[in-house]
């Protein structure tokens, strides 16, 4: 065994994994700034929570095998675009699109793909907005463009997706059609809840604005 060769490979893998961590750090800062700006404009925080993760080497290898790609770092870097992932849970559906637009307008981000599973839910009922972006990271000796998958959803969508994920993991085999339909139905209920909350939110906003104008009118008297 050539120990030097092994050492080189180990260093390459460490650098590879580090670049995704840096990309997530950059994205998290960006999102935090957008959140503070949004809070200033709209007077509320649109983000309930944010979770980010770097895919484990085991999961990366599993995905590469499943997709039958060659096990080479440059190929994995290009083909597996969710090694760095951020999940943003928003309060209202409109927040999702506003945040997505804000991200798409960032000069240093390249939006490579947008998958709108809210307008077009998956057959099982899954809803979320997915963006695949590229973000530059700057290291001592080079600059790199790194792919990050951003999933943006509401609390209700997140609730459904988390439990659906658990149910699938628990029952490793096919789930019966009756339960598939139940799950899809539950996703529709979640979406209805989102629409109701959004509508209440909008009405309160209108009332608030009217009250604000009235106050202004009175102060002019
Ligand atoms: P994990 O464990 O969250 O990382 P691909 O990424 O190429 O396999 P595709 O269709 O190109 O598949 O990507 P897509 O549909 O944008 O989905 C990628 C991620 O979205 C998944 O990552 C999940 O996190 C989430 N997702 C998509 N569909 C579902 C679903 O039906 N239920 C739930 N709970 N999550 C979903 P991973 O790598 O599969 O999983």
Q: How many individual β-strands?
A: 5
Structural class by SSE content? alpha+beta
**Euclidean distance between termini CA atoms:** 88 Å
What is the mean predicted local confidence, pLDDT? 93
CATH fold description of the domain at 3-156: Beta Polymerase, domain 2
CATH homologous superfamily descriptor of the domain at 3-156:
Beta Polymerase, domain 2
Strand order of the largest sheet: 1-2-5-4-3
What small ligands are held by the chains?
ligand 0O2
Q: Identify low-pLDDT runs.
A: none
Residues in helices, as a percent range: 55-70%
Pick out its properties.
Beta Polymerase, domain 2, alpha+beta, GTP pyrophosphokinase family protein, 5-stranded mixed beta sheet, binds ligand 0O2
Task: Compose a concise summary of this entry.
The protein has 221 residues and is of the alpha+beta class. It has six helices and five strands.
What does this 3D model show about the protein?
With 221 residues, the chain is α+β, with helices and mostly antiparallel strands. It has a domain at 3-156: Beta Polymerase, domain 2. It has helices at 3-42, 57-67, 73-79, 93-104, 155-170, 177-220, and strands spanning 47-54, 84-90, 110-116, 129-138, 143-154. It has a five-stranded mixed sheet with strand order 1-2-5-4-3. Strand 4 and strand 5 (143-154) form a beta hairpin. 19% of the residues are buried. The mean pLDDT is 93. The site of ligand 0O2 has 9 residues, from helix 5. It comes from Evansella alkalicola.
